[in-house]
Known about the structure:
Elements: E1 4-5, E2 7-10, H1 29-42, E3 46-49, H2 63-74, E4 81-84, E5 90-92, E6 107-108, H3 111-114, H4 116-121, E7 125-129, E8 133-135, E9 138-140, H5 144-156, E10 160-165, H6 168-179, E11 188-193, H7 203-211, E12 218-223, H8 228-237, E13 241-244, E14 251-253, E15 256-257, H9 261-274, E16 278-279, H10 282-289, H11 295-301
Parallel strand pairs: 1-16, 2-3, 2-13, 3-4, 4-7, 7-10, 10-11, 11-12, 12-13
Antiparallel strand pairs: 5-6, 5-9, 8-9, 14-15
Amino acid sequence: MPNKVIISCAVTGGAATTPDINPAVPVTPEEIANSALEAWRAGAAITHIHVRDPETKRGTMEVKYYRDVVERMRATDTDVILNLTTGPGAFFVPGEDEPAIGDPISIFKKPEVRVKHVEELRPEICSLDVATMNMGERVFMNTPPHLTEMAIKIKAAGVKPEMECFDVGHVMLANHLIETGVIESPPLFQLCLGISYGCPATVESILHMRSLLPKDAHWAAFGISRHEMPIVAAAIQMGGHVRVGLEDNLYLDRGVLASSNAVLVERAAQIIRLLGYEVATPDEAREILGLGTGAAKSAAAE
């Protein structure tokens, strides 16, 4: 389907975007599920899901919140593809007195903890951050042994990993995981641009990272903040798919807060059509990515 573009919507994220900045950011499982369904109705074939503690409004790894969101969505008529994050649990801050011991604000967990919700809920896709990097004042740490263990568990659960790459070296590590058989082909990449301190959100970044991908790879890209829609346009024209959502960007236009995830999806869909492409439905996305039709509903029924 060379003319079809998949839209993924990153619904809430873990911490960087907050309802204090934009009230549209969903927090409770009900809000997250409803916002994801609105994004699907607007044209998103995939919804990328983080969850938050309803009281603190911060990201959490509690399986009960993931289960709540997933069950709410599966109880509807949606055919959207669920993509659950495994990013939480990878942040390390050296202790002030003993750097080898994490500061109490560190959230660094074992691989089995980071994929527990994936094993239990079996979404069609989950993210796998093939990345160790400085991210703000913290280290986002994903070692090769941890990634290998997570990938093995993800594969055993029948879930396709979406490898998130924030810099060129991350692509090379992802390629190594593919070459050694840890990740099955055809692989799925997400090129994450504009995050400090990774690749900038530029056409040049996409061109270089794309040049390093395996020939059979499926890929998408996103840019954060004001770069979101320009990267949508660039990725489409270079043969990729796209991601938008309140996790990555809180604004629809300069100085205008986005009122929902749906309006960001609608803007991306408009760009896709203006460039002469078509928005892929969830089942078309399944065919493109080799997921199989209706896998989410089948998993829910088992």
